């Protein structure tokens, strides 16, 4: 079963996709997302924070991303752009969430909703963003689980 935060991220990607294509207001997007079957299992507060944060900080997120990508942002698919916004926002504003969790979630979202190799592109861009935004955390060794 998917966690409430994962459900929120999936819904946020769908909402950001709608926002890009139709320029829909946040309240209308949340109303629309409320019709999705898994909406009730999502962390609604987290979903609303993600949508509000990305919509408010879109320009600064795009500035961060534009120096890390190999093409104009207008040439990135709307789905992958939404995923990059979402993960970028989390990397900057949720330092308590390990960057590996954010990257794994973004890659899973790209595999589920993006193009064939979109997850590879998302991974590469976010890996470079982590180097900029969380260099100390990136340098820490991964702790191995013991049996």
From TrEMBL:
Gene Ontology BP, a term: DNA-templated transcription termination
SUPFAM superfamilies on file: NusB-like
GO molecular function, one term: RNA binding
Keyword Transcription listed: yes
Pfam families: NusB
InterPro entries xrefs: NusB-like_sf (IPR035926), NusB_fam (IPR011605), NusB_RsmB_TIM44 (IPR006027)
Keyword Repressor: no
TM stretches of this protein: none
Function in brief: Involved in transcription antitermination. Required for transcription of ribosomal RNA (rRNA) genes. Binds specifically to the boxA antiterminator sequence of the ribosomal RNA (rrn) operons.
Family: Belongs to the NusB family.
Protein name: Transcription antitermination protein NusB
Lineage: Bacteria, Pseudomonadati, Pseudomonadota, Betaproteobacteria, Ferrovales
